[in-house]
Write a structure and sequence with these properties.
Elements (H helix, E strand, L loop, with lengths): L1 E14 L2 E14 L4 E2 L12 H11 L4 H5 L4 E9 L5 E8 L4 H12 L7 E3 L2 E13 L3
Amino acid sequence: MLAIACVACTKQTKTENKTTEETSTVEVTTSNTEEVYSTADEMPEFPGGMGELMTYLGSNIQYPSKAKENHWEGSAVCQFVIEKDGSISNAEIIQSSGFQLLDIEAMRVILNMPNWTSGKQNGDSVRVKFALPITFKLQ
């Protein structure tokens, strides 16, 4: 439900026999459709669950060759929003692995994920923020 209220206020001020009129507009927006939840009654889920998410990551992460050559390892924490339709938006690295190439690969794999099952609050699909660490470790 989207509710927008626009209130116009007129204020008259008298100063030394002068009357001035100030008009201000205050916009109040309440939008449950735009709110992003940190937790929800039903959290979003990757298709098939967390095990499938780990399989997806393992199958789709391509360790950058320069990172392999230089033995670069680290964890990038990606944060993103799972939209009402399950798509991914607002993806960003909130904690770097320490290596730009690894961070770029983490973002690539996040942005290419299939749609999730959306989160629900009071039975309605909602936008939910999710953070996911992606670890790069050579074996």
